[in-house]
Amino acid sequence: MSISTTNEKPTLTEKFTPEEKREIANKIKPITLDMVDMEYNKLKNIGKNAENQSPRSRIGNNVVDYFTFMERLHTRGKYNCNYFEFIHNIDEFQKKKFIQNMLEYYKTVKNKSGKKNKYIVWKETYNICISAINIIRPIMYMEIYTKYNATSVLDFCAGWGGALIAAAVLDIPKYTGIELNSSLVEPYKKLQAYTKSKNTNTAIDMIFKSALDVDYSILEYDLVFTSPPYYFIQKYEHNVPYKSKKEMDELFYVPLFSKTYQHLKQNGYYILNINKEIYENVCIGLFGVCHEIFFLKKSQRQNEYKENVYVWKKL
Length: 315
Hints:
Layout: H1 18-28, H2 33-46, H3 61-72, H4 83-88, H5 90-93, H6 97-110, H7 118-129, H8 138-147, E1 152-155, H9 162-170, E2 174-178, H10 185-197, E3 203-207, E4 223-226, H11 245-262, E5 269-274, H12 276-287, E6 292-295, E7 308-313
Parallel strand pairs: 1-2, 1-4, 2-3, 4-5
Antiparallel strand pairs: 5-7, 6-7
Helix pairs in contact: 2-3, 6-7, 8-9, 11-12
């Protein structure tokens, strides 16, 4: 087998059963329901004081990972490769010098004691050499919802569940999440059942379809905050492939941003976690220069790469 460097078609395969995948995910992140309860309760106690928490704080991440981590491992990065394909084809990947060197470094230095199992070592190697599949922490969503006094949130690229958790913890009256990845239907059902068991007052509506096909005129929302997929960086399950950045601008970003902004309530906030290129290529032309810009707070354990959050108020 040869590993293609093209970003057009995946050439890798894996044969893990769903049960095997759950077991692998649990070996990387052995999260128990007791740990989830503890972190959810900590988020409740933090409440509207999220802005005062350390940027290093990972409180709430285990809640996200308990429900959606396994599905996150299906996200494709470099070589159109997801984590399960990476480890299934590890013998071939080890022929690549930079991956071989990384694994050797773990063996002789970073994991010399052997405390990390092979699935964790492979995941950390995948993060560095293929793609780091990060989340926006629930505590970051909480900070933004509080800062802009959200009462009805729209997240049209809902992703891994951090936004829903934050809304439920804060008892935001209404949260609407839109997600194309149908593999997340069951994880989200379990997450919603969990937040309901924690007596949230948030009305949660999850819509599983393309965000381009949703009728936003029938939705009510005074705050949009989302992190849409960036140009070709990661490929999420069921996402439409685009041939060029220009095509993605014209067929995805422009119509989606236009529709969602149009039906945002007056004096509401439109907030996007996007890279500078998308901001300059698309957003300035649609909305003008943003009213506010700040860095997305991230744990320093993730990486040093800084992402911008752009804010417009609909006047």
